[in-house]
Write a structure and sequence with these properties.
- It comes from Planomonospora alba.
- By secondary structure, the protein is mainly alpha-helical.
- The protein has eleven helices and no strands.
- It is elongated, with a radius of gyration of 22 Å.
- It starts with a helix and ends in a 16-residue tail after the last helix.
């Protein structure tokens, strides 16, 4: 009897799985197809788990997606914008680096093209509108970080007093989002690097007798 009990317990025990590997598989699916077009069945097949394990480990599909996005934003592929803003000594260098790295990251064939946060909520239904709102909030946070960095640059004299930090932040956000979409449409790193270089040409210049151009 005791042997049968142990066998029954073993059979009833949930199958162990590699959570990080399962999350990586879910990330790839959401990144390739978007939230709406990715079914729970496709997720569980790619993750190598049963639906019950998905719900037990991650919650529902939306909760899994949000965990995927947060993990993505901590990864080198998803964190390059924040790193550039924090690490570069001037705003000019920070934005040049953001665009240069976007040109390399977005078309990289080792992962789906573009940016997960920019593209994953296309064509969501009304019942999943919260997903679109969630991603929009993350994009707005990036825009706010852009504005803050540019306003600081203006206070410190890097940008001329006549520059408009809010408009410049919106411009760079639009360029980054456009580069993501171009990558999804097949643009390669060379094309996107050319876009990045052209985009930086709008950087506001000081008058000839003003501060030196940023490095």
């Amino acid at each position: 009897m005791s042997g049968m009990g142990k066998t029954g317990a073993a059979r009833g025990r949930p199958r162990a799985f590699d959570r990080d590997a399962a999350l990586a598989a879910a990330t790839r699916l959401f990144w390739e197809r978007g939230f709406e077009a990715t079914s729970v069945g496709e997720l569980t097949e790619a993750m190598g788990i049963r639906p019950g394990s998905l719900y037990a480990a991650f919650g529902d599909k939306r909760a899994l997606f949000e965990e995927v996005v947060h993990a993505y934003r901590r990864s080198p592929v998803g964190a390059f914008i924040g790193r550039a803003l924090q690490e570069e000594p001037t705003a000019h260098r920070a934005f040049a680096r953001i665009l240069r790295e976007a040109a390399a990251v977005y078309p990289d064939p080792s992962h789906p093209a573009g940016c997960l946060v920019i593209s994953a909520a296309t064509n969501v239904t009304a019942q999943d509108a919260g997903v679109a709102t969630f991603l929009r909030g993350l994009r707005e946070a990036n825009l706010t970080a852009f504005r803050d960095r540019l306003r600081t640059a203006q206070r410190e004299g890097e940008l001329p007093s006549g520059a408009d930090p809010a408009a410049l932040a919106g411009y760079f956000a639009a360029v980054v989002q456009g580069m993501s979409q171009r990558a999804r449409d097949g643009a390669d790193a060379a094309e996107l690097t050319a876009v990045a270089e052209l985009a930086m040409a709008v950087w506001p210049a000081h008058a000839p007798d003003g501060p030196a151009a940023p490095g």
